[in-house]
Amino acid sequence: MNNILVYMLSLTLYTLFLLFWGKNGFKKTNTIRDFCVADNSLDIFTSIFTFTATWFSAVSMQSVTGYVYTYGYITILYSVIGWFLGASILIFAANRIRQYDIMTIPEFFKVRYDSNILQIFGGVIIIACYIFYMIIQIVGFGFIVSELLDIHYNVAIFSIYLFIVYTSFGGLFSVSKTDILNFTIVLLGLLVAATMIIKDIGSIQTMHLMAFEISDGSLLNLSSNPLFPPMTVFTLGLAWGLGTAANPQYLTRILSARNKKTAFHMISYSVIVMGVLYLFLMILGIGSRVIALGSDVIIPTNQVLPYIIKYIIDSPAGGLIFISVIASAISTANSQLILIASSFTHDIYSKFKRPHLSNDHFIYVARIIIFISATMSLILSINPPESLLLFGSYIWGIFAVTFLMPLYGGLYWQKATSQGALWSILFGLLTMAIWYPLSQKSNFLYSVHPVFPGFIMAMVSFFVVSLKTQDKNTISKAMNGDAYEA
Amino acid sequence: MNNYHFIIGLPAKTIFLGGGLYLLSMLLPTILVTFLRKREDQNNE
């Protein structure tokens, strides 16, 4: 059968499944809490699926595979290991944050610091960052669909728009339900892809020995690539790790879990599952390079995966791998749309317009915001960034320099004040904004990711300003979560 | 290639350093959860 026909058939089947699977989520969403945090009711099974599906995005699927294919295992040092270490920090958030009766992370700033400005500012940061981060998902989807179905990129990106808007309209219930389907497809797709590659080459050992031969060791060594000096590897990993720890899309999953124990196990089990999945991606990247005997084959990293499916896998199984890439992009993008809608409606709109929004009005406004923000991301995706992995690290970096200190400091340090949190956000952002243009002019500065100086400034200003702005009410007001969950 | 020691075809340095770091980062959340839950149980007692 013609491969394009296989891909189209796979996409049609996936669409039908998604439509059927997602419709129940709509019925369950009646309140603001349903929409934002699925009524804090998700069991361990659903929590793991929604956590992993949100995590495993186009960056994981396409950029990690593409970079492993091009640069080898050193990619894992500054991406996946950074993410996993960030997940470890999330455990500390899960340990405390559920004591607060909140539905969004900016709402935590309001409850903990008694500051509307921090809540609104937090909401604005979430909206801006996720509108830009969704570009990665749309671009990832666009590349694979346009390449494999042989249609124009602009037409391809429009089709993801329909998927993500549909699955987001039903709130987190709908997203978490479709995440079960999406992550199952990702899991199966990668398992099949890795198995086919190994079968083709013979064994993992042969794959590595051949990779060593064709690249003179550079694909396998962790220190041989001049493009990634140790400082770059360290600071890029730091950007991803700290960004993961402060990222509302994971923190919201902690809130949507049924209880603290579920949240703990969701994170720990999910990281183990993903640890196995990234091994499949590594096999896909290195193995494809070996099969292509490709030290001379130069493909832009973003287009490596479509190339692998089209020319290396080149079988009907490619249909499953094709939709697994699509599922990874959709399951992350729809989750981010929910966060944009929740933040706008709960953290910003309700402050200015209607102090007491009804459930129906909230859901109505949130759906309009889903529509508007998805459209904005779609328009911005027409001219995609060159490196999705680097682009993503800047956005994760913004979360690291803005949310990390106010969040963890607020959870664990009684002396943290609202002024400390506010100045930490401002100094962190300012440092990143100054460092980035400077780094374009100097090789040394370029090797240091802007998040490194940004985070140091955010941390110093958080502690210094908090200590300078203590008053006698600070500590008594601090840590007074609503004892929502003991 | 003669200067290298290979394990499943990978240079020994890559598998021990990279693989070790990978495994540790993958298991760290589980270790932390075990530690925090144990401490919580002790506090409850």
Automatic annotation (TrEMBL), chain A:
Reaction equations catalysed: L-proline(in) + Na(+)(in) = L-proline(out) + Na(+)(out)
Protein location: Cell membrane
Keywords annotated in UniProt: Cell membrane, Ion transport, Membrane, Sodium, Sodium transport, Symport, Transmembrane, Transmembrane helix, Transport
Transmembrane helix found in the keyword field: yes
Main location class: membrane
PROSITE patterns: NA_SOLUT_SYMP_3
Pfam families for this protein: SSF
Transmembrane region(s): 6-22, 42-59, 71-95, 116-145, 151-173, 180-198, 227-246, 267-287, 320-341, 362-382, 388-408, 420-438, 444-467
Stated family: Belongs to the sodium:solute symporter (SSF) (TC 2.A.21) family.
Name this protein carries in UniProt: Sodium:solute symporter family protein
Organism of provenance: Fusibacter ferrireducens
Organism taxonomic ancestry: Bacteria, Bacillati, Bacillota, Clostridia, Eubacteriales
Automatic annotation (TrEMBL), chain B:
TM segment ranges: 15-36
Keyword Membrane appears in the UniProt entry: yes
Keywords from the UniProt entry: Membrane, Transmembrane, Transmembrane helix
Protein known as: Uncharacterized protein
Originating species: Fusibacter ferrireducens
